[in-house]
Specification:
By secondary structure, this protein is mainly α. The chain has a domain at about 15-65. About 90% of the residues lie in helices and about 0% in strands. It is built from 3 helices and no strands. It has helices spanning about 1-25, 30-65, 65-75.
Length: about 80
């Protein structure tokens, strides 16, 4: 349960950061661009958080299955 909650909070944090950056960049042009930039930035931030979580899990699986990584720990 804790891992799931951590993943949700990580996604929310990345989405908020992405929305803030997107809105700031869009705000340089107009109000409408700020709104659009915030929405797109939030979507990109959430996608990055999901991708990062997937990549972390994938790398952990690869490390567990890679015989070279076990040899490094034995030395």
């Amino acid at each position: 349960m804790r891992e799931r909650l951590t993943a949700v909070l990580l996604r929310a944090r990345y989405a908020a950061i992405g929305a803030a950056v997107g809105a700031a960049i869009g705000g340089l042009f107009s109000r409408n661009a700020a709104s659009t930039g915030g929405a797109i930035g939030g979507l990109v931030g959430a996608t990055v958080a999901d991708t990062r979580g997937t990549l972390d899990a994938l790398l952990e699986d690869v490390r567990e299955r890679d015989p070279r990584s076990q040899d490094a720990h034995a030395e």
